[in-house]
Design goal:
Number of domains: 1
Structural class: mainly alpha
Shape: globular
Strand content: under 5%
Low-confidence stretches: 425-429
Radius of gyration: 22 Å
Mean pLDDT: 85
Order of helices and strands: HHHHHHHHHHHHHHHHHHH
Number of helices: 19
Helix content: over 70%
Length: 429
């Protein structure tokens, strides 16, 4: 009886901790560290690691467990041979959710019901939507005060916590993820919630794409352009939309985008500038965003080759890159101390071949699992993460390293929960 009561308490505590994490993450990352620590406590106290690990083994989750754990342990190993100990320790703490997620979330498989996991996902969608609305309201007020249309776009479009506001790239990641989650839940009619929540989820389908457009993250816009037709095709296949309606929606959205672009109501300077910069190919001392990335990627590849097979150490990546920038005369890039801006290169430079292999396993597992189990949400998530990591070192900041492992495991558990719910129904027939 004592064990059952304790398990129930731990499950409820974990559920509410995850609720707080998903509700606050789009606004601030400050609560994620204490939540990670609290999630791990049941696993490491009172010999609970034995039944928790047994759940992980029985549910056939050992592979994702060890993949995430390996990424955390590799960051510890990379810190050990880094000259910049302070940066290495900061990187290790930044990766803490790669330890907290497998220890605190995976043991909940089979214990959290599909309804509970859905409620967590809904909390996240509504929180991201609230962030978008808040940013839009603040931008509108500032536009009225200044008359500058730029208040609605890119860095000016993020307002919460001032200089520590979430970067547009990460807000675009949150918005795109929340959008396809809301689309999936509504398409499959998997909602045990009130009518008002359904209305809010429907509203999010319009608010979140607008937020992505206003943030003007190039990766966010391009990935959403890939997500949108995939979701439409899925909705048509599930008969949530007739074929003619799906084609009409797609054609209408394309026409609307062309009309808005032609009207000049929304500036598209960042996308046009990206194309112009690629044509000019100014790599002597690039000062613009796109060519800076190209220069950084080339420098990162060179640095990775020089430090194979085990890399520079996680704490020394930026320092070593800056030495290369200085030698090449990249004064603009040197001044900003840019990291690799590509997570695959970041792991290759910092941790060498083992780091890159572990990262590829982490990205590849949900995609392979989605194909095997025909899990649409997990597949979309894998595509979104894989694409974002090509243009940002998202696991080097808390906005990405907190969110990505947590959402990966939540969507994995949701797919497992839905399958276990459907098996009894099919067998009873």
């Amino acid at each position: 009886m004592e064990r059952i009561t304790r398990d129930k308490f731990n499950e409820k505590s974990a559920f509410w901790l995850l609720t707080v994490a998903l509700a606050t993450l789009p606004f601030t990352r400050f609560l994620m560290l204490p939540i990670a620590i609290l999630l791990m406590i049941p696993f490491v106290t009172n010999n609970l690691y034995i039944p928790h690990f047994k759940v992980i083994k029985e549910k056939k989750l050992l592979l994702p467990f060890f993949i995430l754990l390996s990424l955390f342990l590799l960051s510890l190993i990379g810190a050990a041979y880094s000259a910049n100990a302070a940066k290495a320790i900061s990187d290790w703490e930044c990766k803490l959710w790669f330890l907290a997620a497998p220890l605190g979330v995976l043991p909940l498989c089979g214990r959290l019901s599909p309804k509970q996991i859905r409620s967590l996902l809904i909390v996240f969608v509504l929180s991201v939507t609230a962030t978008a609305i808040g940013n839009f309201v603040i931008s509108t007020v500032r536009f009225v005060q200044t008359g500058e249309i730029s208040q609605f776009f890119y860095m000016n479009a993020t307002h919460f916590f001032g200089s520590k506001a979430t970067h547009p790239s990460y807000l675009s990641l949150y918005s795109g993820t929340a959008w396809f989650i809301a689309s999936f839940l509504l398409t499959n009619n998997r909602l045990d919630c009130s009518k008002s929540i359904r209305i809010l989820l429907c509203a999010s389908l319009f608010i979140l794409p607008a937020e992505i457009l206003l943030l003007q993250s190039k990766a966010g816009i391009l990935l959403f352009a890939l997500l949108f037709p995939c979701v439409l095709v899925y909705a048509v296949r599930k008969k949530a939309l007739p074929m003619w309606a799906g084609v009409a929606v797609l054609a209408g959205c394309i026409g609307l985008c062309v009309a808005i672009t032609a009207s000049g109501l929304i500036p598209t300077d960042r996308l046009y500038e990206m194309g112009r910069q690629l044509e000019e190919k100014n790599t002597v001392n690039p000062y613009n965003g796109t060519m800076q990335r190209v220069a950084v990627w080339r420098t990162s590849c060179e640095l990775a080759g020089e430090n194979l097979p085990f890399g520079t150490g996680t704490g020394d990546v930026t320092d070593e890159l800056c030495r290369q920038y200085e030698a090449k005369g990249y004064t603009y890039i040197l001044d900003k101390r840019l990291n690799c801006h590509n997570q695959y290169l970041q792991h290759l430079v910092g941790l060498g071949i083992p780091g890159l292999l572990a990262l590829l396993l982490f990205i590849g597992y949900p995609i392979v699992e989605a194909v095997r189990k025909k899990d649409f949400m997990l597949g979309m998530w894998g595509m979104v993460v894989a694409g974002n990591l090509l243009v940002e070192s998202m696991l080097e900041t808390r906005a990405g390293s907190n969110f990505i492992p947590l959402m990966t495991l939540l969507l994995l558990l949701y797919g497992r929960a839905m399958q276990s719910e459907e098996v009894p129904q099919s067998s009873s027939r």
